[in-house]
Amino acid sequence: MNETTCDHNCDQCSSNCESRQPLDLKAPLHHMSQVGKVIGVVSGKGGVGKSLVTSLLAIAMQRRGFRTAILDADITGPSIPRILGLTAKATSDEIGLYPVYSKTGIAVMSINLLLENAEDPVVWRGPIIAGTVKQFWTEVIWDRIDYMFVDMPPGTGDVPLTVFQSLPIDGIVIVTSPQELVSVIVGKAIKMAKLMNIPIYGLIENMSYLLCPDCGKKISVFGPSHLQEVAAKHQIPVLGEVPIDPALAAACDRGELELLEQNYLQLAVDLIDDSNGCTKK
Predict the structure, then answer these.
(1) Which residues face 238 on adjacent strands?
(2) Rounded-to-integer distance, Cα 1 and Cα 3, Å
(3) Can you list the alpha helix ranges (DSSP code H) found in the chain?
(4) What total number of domains does the chain contain?
(5) Going residue by residue through the chain (281 aa), what tens digit of pLDDT does each one get?
(6) Residue 127 falls inside a structural domain
(7) Measured between alpha carbons, how far is 171 from 193 in angstroms, rounded to an integer?
């Protein structure tokens, strides 16, 4: 039906006109950027080590020879610069904003790289925070990135919704911890992803166990893990378990995580790594 004869009664019309098309809210990438696969790292609540897992995944992909980036979308609680030992500030010119590079070459953009004092709180309302995340995608010049990891804020609010709608997310990794309460909240993150038609790579459990330094026995500090139960309930795979490791914590505090030899997330990286080398324009 053409515009001159349209009676705006879509229930009785078979035409596939523009008004029937789903609204595309994807934000445009900076014209000088090239980004391949975009992976969101999410959690149902804060404090489960999402930023640590994001960093571990990016480091692992960088070690495989890929050009890797982290977009820190956790505007009110940015941890990535501290974990990677970044002290330089991001720069900009009339062309755009430039990320800061870690010791091994991981490109990073975080609000802490723009603040004069990294300890200053970001006291902004939701729409401004969501807009800042979009700017990290549209105004930053990401140079030939193969894999970008987006460190998302916890929960299912404004910013996660903005990321899912605005960025071309290829899939997400959900981070959890052993407590039963967390497993319930993880279900909300899973359902949100499915509601938004975002593929889920699987679950990664942080603080999964403590390895006894004397006998090597695994100690369940937070009680029995519910990871397998949650994975089976939602029919998604388990991608890894990160232990409570004093060396890991010390490396993050020193900003030297990239220098630590570890291989906790091999399965997750194998699944994410499609080695196709293609990029989105």
Answers:
(1) 203
(2) 7
(3) 50-63, 80-83, 126-138, 158-166, 180-195, 227-234, 246-254, 266-272
(4) 1
(5) 454 566 656 656 656 565 544 456 789 999 999 999 999 999 888 888 999 999 999 999 999 999 999 999 999 889 999 999 999 999 999 999 999 999 999 999 999 999 877 777 777 777 888 899 999 999 999 999 999 999 998 877 778 888 899 999 999 999 988 876 667 788 888 888 988 899 999 999 999 989 888 888 889 888 888 888 888 988 999 999 999 999 999 999 999 999 999 889 998 999 998 754 434 43
(6) yes
(7) 9
Cβ-based neighbour number of residue 163 at 10 Å: 27
Q: What is the DSSP letter of 10?
A: G
Give me the torsion for CA of 56, 59, 61, 66, rounded to 10°.
Answer: 160
Residue 20 lies in a domain: no
Residue 70 near residue 86, CB atoms below 8 Å: no
- C-alpha to C-alpha distance for 201 and 38, rounded to whole angstroms: 12
Task: Provide the 8-state DSSP code for 8.
Answer: S
Domain-located, residue 133: yes
CB contact at 8 A, 159 and 128: no
What is the distance in angstroms between the CA of the first residue and the CA of the last residue of the chain?
35
Identity (one letter) of the amino acid at 61? Answer: M
158, two tokens: 């404004």
- Residue 226 identity (one-letter amino acid): H
Residue 10 forms part of a structural domain: no
Using CA atoms, how far apart are residues 107 and 146, in angstroms rounded to an integer?
11
Q: Which domain holds residue 124?
A: 29-271
Position 278 scores a pLDDT of 38
Strand (E) positions, 15-96? 35-42, 68-72, 91-92
C-alpha 273: how far from its chain's center? 15
**So what's the pLDDT on residue 135?**
94
What CATH number corresponds to the domain at position 152?
3.40.50.300
